[in-house]
Amino acid sequence: MLFTIISGLIGLGIVIFVHETGHFLAAKAMGIEVEAFSLGWGNPLVRFSFRGTEYRISSLPIGGYCKLKGEQNLQPGDGPESERNVPEEGSLFAVAPWRRVITFLAGPFSNLLFSVLILSLIWGIGYSIQTFGNRIILVSDYSSISSAASRYPADQAGLQSGDRIISIDGEKVNHYRDIQELISTRADRTIPISVEREGEVLHYTITPRLNPQTGGGIIGVSPWIDPVVGELSPGSPASAAGILPGDRIVAVQGETVHNHLDILQALEGHPLRFGLTVERKGENINLRMVPDYDENGNPLLGISYESITSKQRASSIFQAFSRGFSESFSILGLSIKSFALLFQGIDLQQAVSGPIRITYMVGQVASTGFSDGIMSGLISLFRFLSFLSIALFVMNLLPIPALDGGLIVITLFEMIRGKRISPKVFNRYQVFGFIFIMTLLVFTTFNDIFYFFTNH
Judging by beta carbons within 10 Å of its beta carbon (0-12, 13-18, 19+), is residue 121 exposed, middle or buried? Predict the structure, then answer.
């Protein structure tokens, strides 16, 4: 848990620091004096001055900040007393409005550039993902497990358990990961889908349903996972029963099983002890197992089934940058769409995260990734940070007072009018923004606390 928290704070801090660095470099280029630039928050541990800027390393390793000369005018109640006031030379409000716009834009755009560079680097290095094949199971066939209340889009389209999905909306499908990515971005859109069934290719149309908890599309399918044991948890019920990696589970309580959901369905009665048959080197072996169950009654057997390792790597530097660029803008499009979905019945408690949950999520991704090795952990962490960085890009450009987008809007308004906005109006605008931000912060913080109490 401690590693998760520390990793989360450092990861979130990197994204914030990149943002502030963008403001810093732009301000210097636009002739705005930077009074202080800090790595981290809190009391400065180390400080030195160079060319009019005090550089600091502060006690809390969470992001950083860039203090511009004259930016106190951005704070409520601290604006200039009248429009006749002349800002100090080198201050934020002494430069031309277009220079301020560039300075405000630089923070969000540095986050977008960070994502492009990181994803390009990841594509250049290469990475592996664990997934399953493109064969599917209809969730409705196991409704007692899924608690399905109505037919899913897959049922309505005519898909069947055992089908192999080979293309979605004209995109080739190789693995179940491809199905997830293609479906999640196409909620409420009618799209073509092709499947292979008993050697025949069939074509259908399907309309993924919007999942109000995530904002992504779903069609009601699960991966067909052959019950071949990949790994066993030490001391688990499966290990105690004598199951070995490579075993294929062929029967549970006398019932033949073909996939992982068959096993769950066979254990619906929550037996305290049950028999199972595994195939090992062509021979069937009968075993007995005493399972554990979680608080929701789901069996905990300690088995990980064999998965497919898919290696992803660009063939050249040019392709790596091309992939990094296209993936970043694909995520950008999804992020913009996600904000719009907040007004379409999305479950805000599940879909909206505050700083506590984001920090935990970053740390969890890091700790899970590092369990598979240092390189795997770094790739998982920075891949997630690239997603978070784009979300920060979108959020900061919203035309909300106190955010970069709000400051850009009011500066553009000044440019159209040809004169500075009234200090009274400016400060009221900023007060509204701070109230909005604080309200959102309180909501997301309580939302995060509720999330942890109900999910952990």
Answer: middle
* CA atoms of 424 and 97, how far apart (whole Å): 19
The answer to whether the 136-223 and 229-306 domains have the same CATH topology is yes
Of the listed ranges 51-60, 170-179, 311-320, 430-439, the least confidently predicted one is 430-439
What is d(CA 121, CA 71) in angstroms, rounded to the nearest whole number? 36
User: For residue 389, what are the contacts with CB-CB under 8 A and spacing of at least 6?
Assistant: 15, 18, 111, 112, 114, 115, 118
CATH of domain 136-223: 2.30.42.10
Q: Is 310 helix (H, G, I), strand (E, B) or coil?
A: strand
pTM of this prediction? 0.71
| Domain spanning 229-306: CATH 2.60.120.200 | no
Question: Domain residue spans in the chain?
Answer: 2-124+384-455, 136-223, 229-306
Q: Which one-letter DSSP state was computed for residue 1? A: -
Which active-site residues does the annotation give?
20
CB-based contacts of 47: which residues, under 8 Å, 6+ apart?
54, 55, 56, 57
Mind listing the pLDDT tens digit for each residue in 387-413? 888 888 888 888 877 788 888 988 888
